[in-house]
Amino acid sequence: MKLVSRPPSDSAPPRIAALSVLPAFFDLAGKRVVVAGGSEAAAWKAELLAAAGAQVDVYASPERLSESMVALHEREPRVKLHRHVWDADCLAGAVMALADVEDESEATAFAAAARKAGAAWNVIDRPAHCQFQFGSIVNRSPLVVGISTSGAAPVLSQAVRRRIETLLPCSLADWAALGRQLRDVVAERLLPGEARRHFWERFVDRAFAGAPDCNAPEQLRSDIREVAEQKQQGHVTFVGAGPGDPELLTLKAVRALQAADVILFDDLVSDEVLELARREAKRILVGKRAGRPSCKQHEINEMMIALAKAGRRVVRLKSGDPMIFGRLGEELAALESEGIEHDVVPGITAGLAMTARLGVSLTHRDCARSVRFVTGHSQHGGLPQDVGWAAVADPSATTIFYMGARMAARISAELIHRGMSARTPVVVGVSIGRPGEAIHSTDLAGLPDCCTIIRDGQPALIGIGRVFAQRFKVEGVQPPTRNRELLPQVCSGIEMPPPS
């Protein structure tokens, strides 16, 4: 079986985009940390360090000790106060060193002394003298979330922290503690890979369902026993990736991506959507694009079956919605013939995303009675011969053509031949939901010329129907508002059916 790679100019994305800093977490329990300075800012850092279990030695002259630092020393046994200024000798044996200093020369000296002592260093509010940075914290310990903008916008970090605080229930701290207690049991009873992940997925479902009660530990142990006794079986989930914008994914789609062992993805799936997948998941491009080397359909089917029989959780990631021109039927039939479990997570098809961008209703009752999604490219190339063109030419219908840019001239000619007005409003959407998205308006007669601007490889849609009159520029007609009473005026010149 031959796997297909993206062309070099459109290479597969890395598992993670570039990072301005590497988020890391220090284990400071029982370790010595030095804080130089007694200011309010230094007191807050000392309090954080003590909360992380560090033994904190604070060095500050008496006249520069803030009330906060003195109060922290009095209530927190981990914070020891040395009432004199720091020197290089006080850094010996420290794993971390922080300072709040008044001038650049002292900041330079402190950073050099910490480096020589082998301690990680940070000088408050002086990024040039920091080996690491503090971020905003969401504390559900042992679950801890750190947020950083690399010093670019601290206020943004705080805003993100507040939003995350509202999303994460405080009870997650109790669940995380239970998870820590059970890690050894899970490692002993469950094999690495699918079995363990299955248990932890159940654990997460319980954690977000509410606070743990007194029965939670036994319920979790029961989950471990149940997973251990299950025969490891593979599963295929068909996921609609939408037109490209990751914010259009459903929550269920994101959960499937996070649980996958292997992702078989289409060529049109965006890098931003793939970024939401589990980092460890293997990603295989199985795209099918006209005029490019592609996987054969039977190869995709065989790959899904082989992976599922090997016990893998497979996500078949399809652009748009899997059930609209996604060959879902063929792939489902192949899995069903082998008795492989599967499910489908729908996505937003590009046609709906395009009309949402326009703010147009596909079935506005003053303009349309039905909607049709039609392929503009047959299985053997060219315009499909078995399309009911008389029905497509119905002026009371809205039609979205997929994969029809190359056939634009023939589509226009066929519909006009079938009696559709050459002035029927048309929109052409390019790269919907992606960077470079564009939507052009024209009419049926101008459709072929409009499609000539589409570059090879750009995904394109054609929308035809009176509903697009809202975005159709006609000389002498002012752009309409979204007021329903104005719409018939915009559609003037096109025979309208009586109101329902």
Whole-Å distance between the termini? 56 Å
How much helix, percentage-wise, in residues? Answer: 25-40%
Biggest sheet, spatial arrangement of strands: 3-2-1-4-5
State the total count of DSSP E strands: 17
Shape: elongated
3D architecture notes:
With 500 residues, the protein is an alpha/beta fold. 33% of the residues lie in helices and 17% in strands. The chain contains 16 helices and 17 strands. The protein has helices at 40-51, 67-75, 104-117, 154-167, 172-189, 194-207, 216-229, 251-259, 271-274, 297-309, 328-337, 350-358, 389-392, 408-417, 447-451, 487-490, and strands spanning 32-36, 55-59, 79-82, 96-99, 120-123, 136-140, 143-147, 235-240, 262-265, 282-285, 313-318, 342-345, 370-375, 397-402, 425-430, 438-443, 460-464.
Q: What's the structural blueprint in terms of helices and strands?
A:
Layout: E1 32-36, H1 40-51, E2 55-59, H2 67-75, E3 79-82, E4 96-99, H3 104-117, E5 120-123, E6 136-140, E7 143-147, H4 154-167, H5 172-189, H6 194-207, H7 216-229, E8 235-240, H8 251-259, E9 262-265, H9 271-274, E10 282-285, H10 297-309, E11 313-318, H11 328-337, E12 342-345, H12 350-358, E13 370-375, H13 389-392, E14 397-402, H14 408-417, E15 425-430, E16 438-443, H15 447-451, E17 460-464, H16 487-490
Parallel strand pairs: 1-2, 1-4, 2-3, 4-5, 8-11, 8-12, 9-10, 9-11, 13-14
Antiparallel strand pairs: 6-7, 14-17, 15-16, 15-17
Helix pairs in contact: 1-2, 5-6, 5-7, 6-7, 10-11
